[in-house]
Amino acid sequence: MVKPGKAVTTRRFRGVTMPTSSHPAIRKVRRLGANPSIHGNKLWKSSLLLIDYLNTHRPAHCEKVLDVGCGWGIAGIWCAKALGSSVTSVDADPGVFPFLEASAALNGVATTQLASTLQNLSSRQLSRYDMLIAADICFWDDLVDPVFNLVNRAVKAGVKQIVIADPERPTFFAMASRCETRHCAELIEWKTSTPLRARGALMILHNA
Ligand SMILES: C[S@@+](CC[C@H](N)C(=O)[O-])C[C@H]1O[C@@H](n2cnc3c(N)ncnc32)[C@H](O)[C@@H]1O
Questions:
Q1: Structural domain containing residue 160
Q2: Which residues of 14-26 are buried (b: 16+ CB within 10 A; e: fewer)?
Q3: CB 3.0-4.6 Å disulfide test: which of 61, 78, 113, 157 passes with 127?
């Protein structure tokens, strides 16, 4: 709800409520000193692509979901809320978790938090999940190999579906084209127009 002169504090998208940085719960988290340091400082638009795709193509296997590089975690929160998934939200930067908790509480759900780099997620850990999701995690040259290797480990571990969204960074395409070759992953363009605009690409891998 927007009143003249009042800051927007939430946005709704496909049934999930997303706090803006003006939301009182987010301001409180900031006041208490939480300060993400590896770009987990806001909700990134690629998570909208991920949510919209999963809303359109409801996954067959989504009981246990791993949201890698979760940041404020809205894609995993959507899975918990809309799909009833049990979600583990992973990030290298534990500074994102107070923001994730505030966002999850706004939606009446909770996710399990795991502070870990994606490089440190073992095949054994990955084997506990049906679906791996990620939004905008391949943003540096030196993340191309680690994200590709994460996908390889997840496939080997039997994760049934992997969906990674991105605002079409060259680093993402470098990773995704290797997944196309190795695992017949699909690379598609995706966009949303209402109620929020976002455009980018999705890498989708079915490992059934
Ligand atoms: C651009 S943000 C995207 C956050 C969230 N997925 C979203 O769409 O709003 C990238 C996230 O990846 C995390 N990250 C960066 N490098 C990582 C790594 N090596 N392992 C795990 N997480 C990482 C950052 O801390 C940050 O939260």
A1: 10-206
A2: bebbbbeeebebb
A3: 157
